[in-house]
Amino acid sequence: MLKKKWPLIIAGACWLVVIGLRFDRFTSPSEEPVLNSPPAQAFVYVELRGEVNTPGIYKVADSSRLFDVIHRAGGLTDEADISTLNQTQTVYDGWLILIPSKNEHLSNDDGKISINHATASELETLPGIGPATAEAIIQARSERPFKTIEDLLDVPGIGAQTLANIETLITP
Q1: Which residue range(s) make up the domain with 82?
Q2: Which residue, 53, 73, 104, sits at the end of a domain?
Q3: What is the pTM (predicted TM-score) of this model?
């Protein structure tokens, strides 16, 4: 009786080996082909106003720098004051970039000081902001501009009480 079932046992064993090899081939990550497709390009929208030749909204790669956007806008006008700008800063989505003129004061029409554009001496006019904190604000905004006033809480030396004292005097 065993002689009659022997071919069946061999066929079954072969079948299990074949299934096992196929299963192993699909589960082994080292045997899967590697696709070298480039990552999809991400874009952001930024608006450029002020002392540029062609103000407007620009769609740029998310890795673009401020000087790239200025170049796309036809460059700066002769009246542009870039003393407070970090042109090597990476742009981010929704950023409104204001290029001031040499004749402008960097505060808004309502008298508020722009924490993204003010000089150290202008920041020091704010209550509770000394030279070290002013420099910390400038350093923080060079890495990433402030989107909201509350972003100042991430700056060393500025706590909730300091922010409460200056929030009516500042704008991003």
Answers
A1: 44-104
A2: 104
A3: 0.45
Report the number of distinct structural domains present in the chain.
2
Q: Could you give the CA distance from residue 168 to residue 84 in angstroms, rounded to a whole number?
A: 22
Instruction: Write the pLDDT tens digit of every residue in 87-138.
Output: 888 888 888 888 888 776 444 456 788 898 888 888 988 998 999 999 999 8
Domain final residue pick, 86, 104, 122 = 104
Helix (H, G, I), strand (E, B) or coil at 56: strand
Write down the pLDDT at residue 53: 95
Residue 32 in domain: no
Q: Say if residue 107 is exposed, middle or buried (CB neighbours under 10 Å; 0-12, 13-18, 19+).
A: middle
In 3-state terms, the chain is what percent helix, strand and coil (to 5)? 40, 15, 45
